[in-house]
């Protein structure tokens, strides 16, 4: 009991030493944004798991939703800007993880249902199509680079396993962005025609839980760098959180919105074909 209390005390002391309001800038404090991100994200994830995703995404709930999106994106940007403060050998890792979180945050915003976001044939639609392709490429690069970086680094096997397994589960998140980059808004409109709540499924059951889990892992990395937790604790924690978040959210989506959304990773949709022939008739399993 005393040992546990001592460790908890060390964590509290370490957290108190962090500069929550200044670094890297007063207008973009990494620590404070992280607290807002983790707190608002936890509320949204719990709401989704309990079946209150629609309430959390309502007009009043959208305040919380956009608070989460804004704090997560800004926290990632702040983390990217802080990379120069890290040792030279760790700077690239900091930049890649921050970039990866920015990409995930983009899809929280991108998949929110909005008629105003996309208008066919406008400059906005052209710009959005270009951004979709760039972000999908960066997201895929981030997923592939993290396990490679871990393997060729000097970290312990526990962390290599944790990062590799976590990256494998995160790799599932790149399938939808790649389809969006390839098929464009036509593909996304087609998917929503067949599955009316697929947009909220993407936001509330996929990308919010994913960004929140990744933010939690990065917070764990902060504790690990400060030697508050050891290699095994960080490696196992990263692996467990990644796998559990995928499992819990998949099951929750299946329970709460089974017929108006799909969990299939690959969703072929041809707007030019007959309505009933747009999808490969294999049901709503992962494939």
- Report the uncertain regions: 274-283
Rg, alpha carbons? 20 Å
Summarize the main sheet. Answer: 2 strands, antiparallel
Report how far apart the termini are.
48 Å
* Helix-strand category: mainly alpha
Number of strand elements: 2
Q: What's the SSE blueprint?
A:
Layout: H1 2-17, E1 24-25, E2 28-29, H2 30-49, H3 53-56, H4 59-81, H5 91-110, H6 123-151, H7 157-170, H8 175-194, H9 198-225, H10 231-256
Antiparallel strand pairs: 1-2
Explained architecture:
The termini are far apart. Strand 1 (about 25) and strand 2 form a beta hairpin. About 70% of the residues lie in helices and about 0% in strands. By secondary structure, the protein is mainly alpha-helical. It is globular. The protein has helices at about 1-15, 30-50, 55, 60-80, 90-110, 125-150, 155-170, 175-195, 200-225, 230-255; strands at about 25, 30. Helix 2 packs across helix 4 (about 60-80) and helix 9 runs antiparallel to helix 10 (about 230-255). The longest helix is centred in the middle third of the chain and has 29 residues, at about 125-150. It has a two-stranded antiparallel sheet with strand order 1-2. The model is unreliable at about 275-285 (pLDDT under 50). The protein is built from ten helices and two strands.
């Amino acid at each position: 009991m005393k040992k546990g209390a001592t460790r908890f005390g060390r964590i509290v002391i370490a957290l108190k030493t962090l500069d929550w309001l200044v670094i890297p800038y007063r207008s973009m404090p990494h620590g404070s944004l992280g607290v807002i991100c983790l707190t608002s994200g936890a509320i949204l994830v719990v709401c989704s798991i309990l079946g209150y995703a629609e309430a959390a995404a309502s007009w009043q709930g959208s305040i919380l939703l956009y608070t989460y999106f804004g704090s997560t994106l800004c926290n990632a940007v702040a983390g990217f800007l802080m990379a120069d403060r890290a040792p030279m050998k760790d700077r690239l890792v900091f930049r890649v993880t921050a970039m990866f979180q920015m990409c995930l945050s983009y899809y929280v915003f991108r998949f929110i249902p909005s008629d105003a976001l996309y208008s066919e044939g406008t400059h906005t639609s052209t710009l959005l199509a270009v951004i979709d392709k760039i972000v999908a490429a960066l997201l895929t690069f981030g997923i592939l680079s993290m396990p490679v970086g871990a393997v060729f680094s000097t970290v312990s096997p526990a962390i290599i396993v944790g990062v590799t397994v976590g990256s494998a589960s995160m790799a599932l998140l790149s399938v939808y962005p790649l389809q969006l980059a390839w098929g464009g808004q036509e593909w996304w409109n087609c998917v929503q025609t067949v599955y009316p709540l697929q947009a909220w499924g993407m936001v509330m059951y996929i990308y919010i839980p994913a960004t929140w889990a990744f933010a939690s892992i990065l917070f764990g990395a902060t504790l690990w760098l400060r030697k508050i937790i050891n290699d095994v604790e960080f490696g196992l924690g990263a692996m467990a959180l990644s796998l559990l978040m995928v499992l819990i959210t998949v099951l929750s989506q299946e329970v709460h919105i089974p017929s108006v959304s799909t969990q299939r990773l690959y969703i072929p949709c041809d707007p030019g074909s007959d309505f009933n022939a747009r999808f490969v008739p294999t049901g709503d399993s992962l494939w």
